[in-house]
Amino acid sequence: QVELVESGGGLVQAGGSLRLSCAAFGRPFSNYAMGWFRQAPGKEREFVAGISWSGGNSGSADSVKGRFTISRDNAKNTLYLQMNALKLEDTAVYYCAARRNSGRDYYSALEREYDYWGQGTQVTVSS
User: Fold this and answer.
1) Contacts of 107 (CB under 8 A, 6+ apart)
2) pLDDT over 80 (residue 94)
């Protein structure tokens, strides 16, 4: 089992930047592919970005492509999400999630394929 703790959320003006972190505690971090998801008020939780256990494969949703970058540091047991050029519509609670290593260097964009979730961190973008 792994415990995930997000940090780095807050209030930022449109066009600004934030970096979210997700610290993992428990089993070796490299056992897991990781993902970032978000949920805006009144909306379903949606995929933001994912990264394989090695960091060799990653990807993001079209809505954030070119603005958000996912990365991981397995030595520090930490996942990151660098968010630039933030927009009002990026306002949401952001969650990190871990998916047990399937043996492939792969990440998933599907919420149901993730096994562990953090408690979330609020990101609010103001005009």
Assistant:
1) 33, 34, 35, 50, 51, 52, 57, 58, 59, 99
2) yes
Type and span of the H or E element at 79: strand 78-83
In tens, the pLDDT along 54-89 reads: 999 999 999 999 999 999 999 999 999 999 999 999
Residue 56: count other Cβ atoms within 10 Å of its Cβ. 10
- Rounded to whole angstroms, the Cα distance separating 116 from 77 reads 15
Q: Each residue of 31-58: pLDDT tens digit?
A: 899 999 999 999 999 999 999 999 999 9
| Class of residue 1 by CB neighbours under 10 A (exposed 0-12, middle 13-18, buried 19+) | exposed
The bridge status of strand 92-100 relative to strand 121-126 is antiparallel
Residues 29-53 as b/e (b if ≥16 CB within 10 A, e otherwise) read beebbbbbbbeeeeeebebbbbbbb
